[in-house]
Amino acid sequence: MRIARAVNNLIEAFERLPGIGPKSAARLTYYLLNVPQGELDKFADTLKLLKANTKICSECFNVAETNPCDICSDKNRDRGVVCVVEHPLDVLAIERGGGFAGVYHVLGGVIDPLHNIGPDEIRISQLIKRLDDQGVKEVILALNPNMEGEATCLFLKRLIPKEIKMTRLAHGLPVGADIEYADDMTLSRAMEGRREY
Ligand SMILES: [Zn+2]
After folding, report:
1. Using CA atoms, how far apart are residues 153 and 46, in angstroms rounded to an integer?
2. pTM for this model (two decimals)
3. pLDDT at residue 191 in the model
4. 140, 187 contact by CB (below 8 A)
5. What is the model's pLDDT at position 196?
6. Looking at residue 177, what is its pLDDT?
7. pLDDT recorded at residue 171
8. Ion ligand 1 — residues with CB under 5 Å?
9. How far is the CA of 126 from the centre of ligand 1 (A)?
10. Intervals of the chain under pLDDT 50
11. Where are the beta strands (DSSP E) in the chain?
12. Ligand 1 centroid to residue 102 C-alpha, Å
């Protein structure tokens, strides 16, 4: 039996998403075939507007509706404390935990030589520039405790001026754990218990 081309195209599109295998891709596609056209149109519009209606904050590189984002433009947040994370999802996780009143810097990845990601492929130079411009007193490294996160922390340690306090958020986070998936309590403890790096 030949699968209809439109069906096959959507299955292939779903398969390109992270965490979706061929079976899930097929299940989602056949599910959508039963959804009324009006709902499908709304879904398609939401997809189309995803990038059109979001901006990347030019200060912290988080995804937002405005540039600068609401965190960077919040006068109550301490711009002297910068929490360095890998992805926008990590900002969400730390904000959910509450208790952090500084600002963020989203690197957009970590140094990963196996996948050809060097320091120039992530936003390290932008971070160093911010430290200068913004009079930063403390940098909190909130990178995942795995090999790539470790390598990135070491690289940053060499670049960041000695006068700036560097702390590492690791306490309570199991090795190999993803910040994105850590529960709120663990994350806020990890933030409180951060230690000098
Ligand atoms: Zn921002």
Report:
1. 37
2. 0.81
3. 79
4. no
5. 79
6. 67
7. 56
8. 57, 59-60, 62, 68-69, 72
9. 13
10. none
11. 55-56, 63-64, 78-85, 102-106, 138-141, 165-168, 195-196
12. 11
